[in-house]
Amino acid sequence: MPVPWEALIPFGLVTTMFAAAGTLLNVSKRAQNQGKPSRFHLDSWDEMMMDRDKRLTGHIRGQTSNTTAPEGFETSSVWYTERAY
Amino acid sequence: MSRYHDPSESSQPYKDPTPLPDNVPKVQELGTTSAPLKSAAFFLGAYCKDYNDDFMLCKAENRDPEHCLKEGRRVTRCAIDLISKMRDSCMQEFEQHWTCLEKNNQEYYPCRKPERALNKCMFEKFGLAKVIPGSPEGKTPIHDVQKPIYTGVQK
């Protein structure tokens, strides 16, 4: 008896769409985070440190263990101009 | 002709128009980012304890930034000293630990294996051990537990 394989096409399509959407989302997240998984559950401390990382390396996920800060690091902090609530 | 230029849209990084005056001694700022600092955190606590305590007590007296500049410079110099020493002697283990932290939302619990290697290297070279202040008496500290309940998902 012939198997109704046409009925399985929608299942295949839905699975492929799920996989494509999931992969695209994952690739997009990793591309935004320099190939690393994205950070979650961030509090003000983490945001402050990520802003400091951006001043040191140019990207919020950039990391370096150099002990010398780049030129202009001492004067690039916006902290003093932020509004005190 | 001349429209308003919002400073947040500028292409140059922010430059503070009122830097520190010249009578304040200059100190080399620490250029280490968050993950290596988190990796070295307990060793900074052990090695620079005196300077850190001085700074905290000074801040507890008076929150004014000008009051604690000297203690702050000492903390910065001590941190630079320790991180340079760590890079000189334990570069491999240090690098592996902080790259592991970066991949795991900068949390300690999935990275116990590189952490043990780093602790061993630091203890051999400098005699610094990781001690978690405030951990319950009598129980093994969480970083020494061999079979913890909460581990990372295996990738």
Question: Mind sketching the topology for me?
Answer:
The complex is a heterodimer of chains A (85) and B (155).
Chain A lengths: L8 H24 L11 H14 L28
Chain B lengths: L33 H6 L1 H7 L1 H13 L7 H35 L8 H15 L29
Helix pairs in contact in B: 3-4, 4-5
Main location (chain B): mitochondrion
Subcellular location (chain B): Mitochondrion inner membrane
Family (chain B): Belongs to the complex I NDUFA8 subunit family.
How would you briefly describe this protein structure?
By secondary structure, chain A is mainly α.
Model description:
Chain A: This is NADH dehydrogenase [ubiquinone] 1 alpha subcomplex subunit 1. Chain A: It is found in: Mitochondrion inner membrane. Chain A: Belongs to the complex I NDUFA1 subunit family. The complex is a heterodimer of chains A (85) and B (155). Chain A has 85 residues and is mostly helical. Chain A has two helices and no strands. Chain A has helices at 9-32, 44-57. Chain A is elongated, with a radius of gyration of 23 Å. Chain B has 155 residues and is mainly α. Chain B has a domain at 33-127. Chain B has helices at 34-39, 41-47, 49-61, 69-103, 112-126. In chain B, helix 3 (49-61) crosses helix 4 and helix 4 (69-103) crosses helix 5 (112-126). The relative contact order of chain B is 0.12. The model of chain B has no long low-confidence stretch (mean pLDDT 92). The chains are: A mainly alpha (85), B mainly alpha (155). The A-B interface holds A 36-37, 39-41, 46, 49-50, 52-53, 55-57, 61-70, 72-78, 80 and B 13-16, 19-20, 28-36, 80, 83-84, 87, 94-95, 98, 102-106.
